[in-house]
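We modelled the chain as a single entity of 317 amino acids. Its sequence is:
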Amino acid sequence: MSPAPPRTASNHRASNLRTATLPFCRLSLVLSWLWLCQPLSALWVCSYNLHNWLSQTQRGSALPLTKPEREKQVAVRLLVSLHPDVLCVSEIGAESEVDDLQLRLKTAGLDLPHRHAVGGSDPMRRLAVLSRLPLTAQPPAAELSYRLDGRTMSVQRGFLDVEVLVSKNFSFRLMAAHLKSMREVEDGDQDLMRRHEARLLRKHLDASLQPSNSTRLLCVGDLNDHLNSPTLRTLIGRGGSHPLWLLNPVDQRGEGWTHYWRAAGVYSRLDYALASPTLKPLIKGCHIPDDREWMEASDHRPLLIEIQEPNSSGADP
């Protein structure tokens, strides 16, 4: 799949209106209003690990884990420049932190009024989706726990699952996950924990795709593993499970890494997007936006997915 062009203000309606140089007259206002009333032929979904958008105290430490103001400002500027229609974020804290992000984006020109957030056993980091389009929350996964070394363990950040209502004739299912990190912990082997979480997510994906396999589904998130790992093989699907298409985003240099581990100087691809066979023909691009200040906002780079509405120009029926 060829990468989508960078998401910039020049190819977004609202941004075009803000930067228009036409004279301020009644005719231009009428034409602009008619333009905005036309149905969107494409929409953009962004998946982004915010890197600790928190204001809480980490377990075992008396120090508050608060994202610096400078990092927040750069993250907001980056997201506003992308102007997604739907934004999935990981590593965000309580509802007050979602409020903070939503308000900052709106103040900067990106109004995403619809939202939904979920969490798991991690008391600090959660998942959230903010959207210009209406959302319908779906029932949670039937299984969110597993057994490891004789103990019952829970999925740390839960699984986010919503229906995105694009128009009266088109919607799609959106799932997001933030699987166990590669950091060693006392609770158990980090690799086995992540594999178990991937297995439970795959079961939820299968349940959502049954029985007709007609669901248009997009699964995004920080999966914290490499492309050739058992985690990714489980989620892509094989054997009797419903296969998903792995999207392969690249930046303007043709590079596909999404995370930088500063302490080790290692660049990795840890963030992914997978699509069901029924949604895949509608995906016209998957891109890693370039931004010279990305490292000041997070240790991850965002993914940007372009989806074409069915029956619109260039889309498959």
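As a brief sanity check on the tokenised model: The chain is about 25% helix and 30% strand. The first helix runs from residue 13 to 19.
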